[in-house]
Design goal:
Blueprint (H helix, E strand, L loop, with lengths): L12 H25 L4 E2 L2 E2 L1 H24 L5 H23 L9 H142 L5 H20 L6 H20 L8 H4 L10 H27 L3 E4 L5 E4 L14 E2 L7 E2 L2 E2 L4 E2 L3 E2 L4 E2 L3 E2 L4 E2 L3 E2 L4 E2 L3 E2 L4 E2 L3 E2 L4 E2 L3 E2 L4 E2 L3 E2 L4 E2 L3 E2 L4 E2 L3 E2 L4 E2 L3 E2 L4 E2 L3 E2 L4 E2 L3 E2 L4 E2 L3 E2 L4 E2 L3 E2 L4 E2 L3 E2 L4 E2 L3 E2 L4 E2 L3 E2 L4 E2 L3 E2 L4 E2 L3 E2 L4 E2 L3 E2 L4 E2 L3 E2 L4 E2 L3 E2 L4 E2 L3 E2 L4 E2 L7 E2 L2 E2 L1 E3 L7 E2 L11 E6 L2 E6 L3 E3 L4 E2 L4 E2 L7 E2 H12 L1
Parallel strand pairs: 5-8, 6-10, 7-11, 8-12, 9-13, 10-14, 11-15, 12-16, 13-17, 14-18, 15-19, 16-20, 17-21, 18-22, 19-23, 20-24, 21-25, 22-26, 23-27, 24-28, 25-29, 26-30, 27-31, 29-33, 30-34, 31-35, 32-36, 33-37, 34-38, 35-39, 36-40, 37-41, 38-42, 39-43, 40-44, 41-45, 42-46, 43-47, 44-48, 45-49, ...
Antiparallel strand pairs: 1-2, 3-4, 55-56, 59-60, 59-64, 62-63
Helix pairs in contact: 1-2, 2-3, 3-4, 4-5, 5-6, 5-8
C-alpha cells in the first residue's frame, strides 16, 4: 500500500476544513441527541447509542485533528498521521463497537472474539501501512541513485561543452585583438588630426579673448565714470532737495502768508519727489525722507497762533464793541490768511490719502494713496479753520483745541479718528462724516452744539466720559459696530432720531440733563442703559429694540414715552423709576417684559400694548393711575406684590391663555382703600381669561378686587417696619362671601 504525498492546497482549504468540521459535528450531534432524547437506549432495533455516540465522537475528533495537522503543517508526515489515526480509531472500534451491538452477540466469548478480530484487522492495516512506507522509502532511495547517475552524465557532457567553448573563445579573442590593433592605429591618426585642429582653434580663441578683454576694460572704465557722474548728480539732487527743504522750513516762519504758502507747496513737492525717486532702491529710505517733511507739516499745524482764541469774534460780520475797527480788519485778514495756509496742508494731504469704495452696504474698502503709509499727528493742535469735505488718513487730534466752529462735515476718516480729550469751544459739525475705522471721542468736551447727523461709524465708536454742554444731534447716524456712551454727560438735549445701532449700545452711567430723544431709533443688538438718569423727557417713540434691552435701575425724572416701541427680545425695566408719566401706548413686547420692582410715580399708560411672552409686574408700584386698557397678554401676566394707589384699568384687556397672577406665595397685590369701586375696572375683553372676582373689607369699606389680593391704606406706611400697617384680609371669592359673613351671626 503506497502512502500518497501531501496534495497541493486548493484555492480555499479553510472552507473544506470548515465543511468537514460541520459534517462531523452534525453526525456526532445527531447521535447524542438520539441518545438524550430516547432516554438512555433505543431497543428498536437493539442498538446501544451511548457507546456508538462516544465512538463517533472519538473518531470525529481524531479525523478533525488529522485534517488540521495535515492542513497547517508545512511538511506533514503522512505515515505518522496514518499510524495515529488507524491506531486510535481502530482501538476505539475494538473497545466500543461490541458494546454497540451487544444485544446481537452472545454473552460468552463472542464479544471478546469480535474485539480480537477488530484488533487483528487494525494490526494488519498498520502492517500494510508500514510496508507501504518501507516501499516508498526504497523507491525514494532508488530515485536518488538514478538522479545521481544522471547528474554525473550531465557533468561529463558539460565538461565536453566547456572545452569546445574555450577553443572557440580563444579563436575569437585572437580575431578581436587583430581588429583592435587596427582600430587603435586609426584612432591615433584621428586623434593627432583633432589635436592639430584644437590647437588652431585655441590660438584663435585666445586672440579673440584678448581683444574682448581690452574692449570690456574700456567699457568698465566708461561705465564707472558714468556711475560716478550719476552718483554725483544724485548727491547734487539730494543736496539741492535738502537745501530746498531747509529754505521751505524757513519760509514757514515768514510773516507773509504767501511766503508760508510757498514753503508748504515746496515741502509737499519734496515729499512726492522722495517717494518717486527710483535712484533710491530701498522703499524705507524714501519713506523716511518723506516722513521727516510730514513731521514738519504736522508741527506747523500744531504750532500756536495768537489769534486762534479770537476766531469766533473775528468771524463776525460786525466789529465787536471791544475791538478797534482798524485792528479788527487787520486781525481778521491775518486770521483768514493763516486759515488758508493751514487748510492748504490738509488739502494736499487729502489729495494723496486713501480713497474709499462703498458697496452700498456701508462696507468701506480703502484704496491706499501716495501718502497712506505716513504717520500724521495733530495732537494738541489749535484748529480754527474748517476741515470739511476732506479725506483725513490718520486723524490723531488728541487733546486738540478747536476755536470757532469745528467743521468736519462730509469728511472721510480712512484710518482711526482719535479726538480723545479734544476741546470744542464752539459748534462742532461731523454731519455726514464717514469713519472707516475706529472713532474715539473719549473725554472730549463739546461746549456748544455738536452735530453728527447722518454720520457713519463702520467700526467701534467711543464717547466714554465725553461732555456735551449744549445740544447734540445724532439723527440718522449709523453705528455699524459697538458704540460706547459710558459715563457720557448730555447737559442739554440729546437727539438720536432714526439713528441705527447695528451692534451693542452702551449708555451705562450716562447722564441726560434735558430731553433724550430716540424716536424711531433702531437698536439691532443689545442695549445697556442700567443706572442711566433721564432728568427730563425721554422719547423712545416707535423705537425698535431687536435684541435684549436693559434699563435696570434707570431713572426717568420726567415723562418717558415708549409709544409704539417694539421690543423683539427681552425688555428689562426691573427696578426702573418713572418719576413722571410713562407711556407704553401700543408698544409690542415679543419676548419677556420685566418690570419687576419698577416704580411709576405718575400715570402709567400701557393702553393697547401687546405682551407676547411673560409680563412681570411683580412688586411694581403704581402711585397714580395704571391703564392697561385694550392690552393683550398672550402668556402669563404676573402682578403679584404690585401696589396700585389710584385707578386701575383692565378694561377690554385680553388674557389669552392664562389667568393673570395676583397672588404668589406671600406676595399679594394691594389696592388703595381711598379709591372708589369705580376706580377698579376688571371688565376684560370677550374671549379673555377672567380675573377671579373677590371681595375684601377694611375699616368697613368693601371693595370687589381679585381673589387673594388685599386693600391697604397708603397713609399707614411705617418707616421702621418698612410696611403698611393697615391692610385687609385677603379677598374672598364672591360666591362664598355671603356664607362667610353669616357664620359670625350664628
Amino acid at each position: 500500500m503506497s502512502l500518497p504525498p501531501k496534495p497541493a492546497q486548493g484555492k480555499n482549504p479553510r472552507a473544506k476544513t470548515v465543511a468537514l468540521a460541520i459534517t462531523l459535528i452534525t453526525i456526532t450531534a445527531i447521535l447524542w441527541i438520539i441518545y438524550f432524547v430516547t432516554g438512555s437506549e433505543w431497543h428498536t432495533p437493539s442498538i446501544h447509542w451511548l457507546p456508538l455516540a462516544i465512538l463517533v465522537t472519538i473518531s470525529s475528533l481524531v479525523i478533525f485533528y488529522l485534517r488540521i495537522t495535515w492542513t497547517i503543517s508545512k511538511k506533514p508526515s503522512s505515515f505518522n498521521l496514518w499510524i495515529y489515526g488507524v491506531t486510535i480509531i481502530g482501538g476505539s472500534i475494538a473497545f466500543l463497537f461490541p458494546l454497540v451491538i451487544a444485544d446481537y452477540i452472545g454473552k460468552d466469548s463472542e464479544g471478546a472474539a469480535l474485539r480480537q478480530m477488530i484488533i487483528y484487522a487494525t494490526g494488519g492495516l498498520l502492517g500494510a501501512i508500514t510496508l507501504s512506507e518501507t516501499r516508498r522509502k526504497n523507491d525514494l532511495e532508488r530515485s536518488k541513485f538514478d538522479k545521481q547517475n544522471d547528474q554525473f552524465t550531465e557533468q561529463l557532457n558539460a565538461q565536453k561543452e566547456n572545452l569546445k567553448t574555450e577553443l572557440d573563445a580563444q579563436k575569437e579573442n585572437l580575431k578581436t585583438e587583430l581588429e583592435a590593433q587596427k582600430e587603435n592605429l586609426k584612432t591615433q591618426l584621428d586623434a593627432q588630426k583633432e589635436n592639430l585642429k584644437a590647437e588652431l582653434d585655441a590660438q584663435k580663441e585666445n586672440l579673440k579673448t584678448q581683444l574682448d578683454s581690452q574692449l570690456d576694460s574700456q567699457k568698465e572704465q566708461i561705465n564707472s565714470q558714468n556711475e560716478k557722474d550719476i552718483r554725483d548728480h544724485i548727491r547734487q539732487v539730494h543736496a539741492e532737495r535738502r537745501s530746498r527743504y531747509t529754505k521751505a522750513v524757513e519760509q514757514l516762519a515768514d510773516d507773509k502768508a504767501a511766503v508760508r504758502l510757498g514753503g508748504i507747496y515746496t515741502l509737499v513737492g519734496l515729499v512726492d519727489e522722495w517717494l518717486a525717486d527710483e535712484n533710491i532702491k530701498e522703499t524705507d529710505v524714501r519713506h523716511k525722507e518723506g516722513q521727516v517733511i510730514i513731521n514738519n507739516l504736522c508741527a506747523y499745524i500744531q504750532s500756536p497762533f495768537k489769534l486762534a482764541a479770537k476766531a469766533k469774534e473775528l468771524e463776525a460780520d460786525t466789529v465787536p464793541a471791544t475791538y478797534d475797527k482798524e485792528q479788527f480788519i487787520a486781525d481778521q485778514a491775518e486770521l483768514h490768511e493763516e486759515q488758508n495756509v493751514r487748510r492748504t496742508i490738509f488739502d494736499e494731504m487729502s489729495k494723496r490719502s486713501s480713497t474709499i469704495e462703498d458697496n452700498n452696504a456701508k462696507v468701506f474698502t480703502p484704496i491706499p494713496g501716495a501718502w497712506s503709509n505716513f504717520d500724521f499727528n495733530f495732537s494738541r493742535a489749535p484748529i480754527f479753520y474748517p476741515l470739511n469735505n476732506l479725506t483725513i488718513e490718520k486723524g490723531t487730534f488728541t487733546s486738540a483745541k478747536f476755536y470757532g466752529n469745528a467743521d468736519f462735515a462730509e469728511v472721510i476718516f480712512t484710518e482711526k479718528a482719535d479726538f480723545s480729550g479734544a476741546g470744542f469751544t464752539q459748534e462742532a459739525s461731523f454731519k455726514d462724516a464717514t469713519f472707516a475705522q475706529e472713532a474715539s471721542f473719549k473725554d472730549a468736551t463739546f461746549t456748544h452744539n455738536a452735530d453728527f447727523e447722518g454720520a457713519t461709524f463702520t467700526k467701534e465708536a467711543s464717547f466714554k466720559d465725553a461732555t456735551f454742554t449744549q445740544n447734540v444731534f445724532f439723527n440718522g447716524a449709523i453705528f455699524t459696530q459697538n458704540v460706547y456712551f459710558l459715563g457720557t454727560t448730555f447737559t442739554q438735549d440729546a437727539y438720536f432720531v432714526e439713528t441705527t445701532f447695528a451692534q451693542d449700545t452702551y449708555f451705562l452711567d450716562a447722564t441726560f440733563t434735558l430731553i433724550a430723544d430716540f424716536t424711531k431709533a433702531i437698536f439691532a443688538q443689545k442695549v445697556y442703559s442700567s443706572r442711566v438718569v433721564f432728568p427730563k423727557q425721554a422719547y423712545f417713540v416707535e423705537a425698535t429694540f431687536t435684541q435684549d434691552v436693559y434699563f435696570v435701575g434707570a431713572t426717568f425724572s420726567q415723562n418717558a414715552s415708549f409709544n409704539g416701541a417694539s421690543f423683539i427680545q427681552k425688555a428689562g425695566f426691573g427696578g426702573t423709576t418713572f418719576a413722571q408719566e410713562a407711556f407704553f401706548f401700543g408698544a409690542t413686547f415679543t419676548q419677556n417684559a420685566d418690570f419687576n420692582g419698577a416704580t411709576f410715580t405718575q400715570n402709567a399708560d400701557f393702553n393697547g400694548a401687546t405682551f407676547t411672552q411673560n409680563a412681570d409686574f411683580s412688586i411694581t408700584t403704581f402711585t397714580q393711575d395704571a391703564d392697561f386698557k385694550w392690552a393683550t397678554f398672550t402668556q402669563n401676566a404676573d402682578f403679584s406684590g404690585a401696589t396700585f394707589s389710584q385707578k386701575v384699568n383692565f378694561g377690554d384687556v385680553l388674557f389669552e391663555n392664562y389667568v393673570p397672577t395676583f397672588v404668589s406665595g406671600n406676595l399679594r397685590t394691594r389696592f388703595s382703600v381711598h379709591s372708589t369701586q369705580e376706580d377698579y375696572n376688571s371688565s376684560v375683553r370677550s374671549g379673555s381669561m377672567l380675573i377671579p372676582p373677590g371681595e375684601a373689607e377694611l375699616d368697613g369699606v368693601k371693595r370687589q378686587i381679585p381673589v387673594g389680593t388685599v386693600i391697604f391704606d397708603p397713609d399707614s406706611w411705617d418707616e421702621g417696619k418698612w410696611e403698611y400697617t393697615r391692610v385687609s384680609e385677603p379677598a374672598k371669592p364672591i360666591e362664598n362671601s355671603d356664607t362667610e359673613e353669616e357664620k359670625p351671626a350664628e
